[in-house]
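User: I need a structural model of Spermidine/putrescine ABC transporter substrate-binding protein from Brevibacillus fluminis for a docking pre-check later this week. Nothing fancy, just the predicted structure tokens so I can convert them on my end. Input:
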Amino acid sequence: MLLGASLIAGCSSGSTPNETASDAGKGAAAGTKDEGLSKELNLFIWSEYIPQSVLDQFQQKYGVKINYATYASNEEMFAKLAVDSSSYDLSVASGYMVEAMKKQNLLAEIDHANIPNLKNVGKEFLTTPSDPESKFSVPYLWGNVVIAVNTDKVKIPIKGYKDLFNPELKQQLVVLDDARSMIGLANIMQGKSINETDSAVLQKSKQLLIDLKPNVKAFDSDSPKTLLLNGEATAGIMYGAEASLARRENPSIKTILPEEGFELWQDDFVIPKNSPHKKTAEAFINFILQPEISAEISKEFPYANPNMEAHKLMDKAILEDPAVYPPQEDMKRGQYMIDLGEKSQELDRIWSELKLQ
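Assistant: Understood. Predicted structure tokens for Spermidine/putrescine ABC transporter substrate-binding protein:
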């Protein structure tokens, strides 16, 4: 998990690796090139998820050309790496997908000796059920899913998902284009787990989403805030950081932590098993975990940050934004997704049928 900020130039969902906008040769000339690193790094990451300035700094410091490609969902990333894990050196996966990739033997074990800045990460983020010893993953960012509402245009009270079914919101919503998230939230509407696999519950979740569809203007996980800001949508279900960025530009946009419950997620760096430049990937992770670099990322893309040392450099307004860092009492209503194994195929089928209707 995502997500009016400076973006990675030239990125498009499902693209193949491309060189960053900066001239790679400048880095080699002006930086402090480490002879133990490769000359390039192939990065596979969500769109709108890392500042170009950070990529430039790494490139200039180490003389490493960064090639990058983007994806729109964990499932898209998984499918590509399952077919060819040698084209990429580093990717980002949500917790449940880390678990799935481990089961499929798609990940390389990470050498913690090459990542001394791992000490800056809060211990609670290093001991997740998906990878309790952080052997195959390193925390990058975490966050939640919220409801965002333009209060200048929406006058009905909204406290949870049930309020989004109001006919007054016909063709007014932008929601995540993500099967696990949306079906999971429909499960929560029923008082069930976000990870529910009972077919009867899943079919009811499908019907709930079908009932919601007349109110849905667009499915968008990449940049749902865009539709909220340009007026095409007046409310939506989106990542907390997206809602926070939208509110920066339009203070009338408010965020709600749904009373029924909500999704929590943690995104981690992972190294594909056949990464051709593994040491360089580890050097990049270590670079990202520098407090000042991590804080720079949060300033541009205000997802919740697991880097405790970076918190000391971050604006208080970001750290106290409930859309990004939910109050402790609200965190009790949050749920993390887990890998559902073969049952995921049923969710994919439900989502495909829903989108076609």
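Before docking, keep this in mind: The two ends are 26 Å apart (CA to CA).
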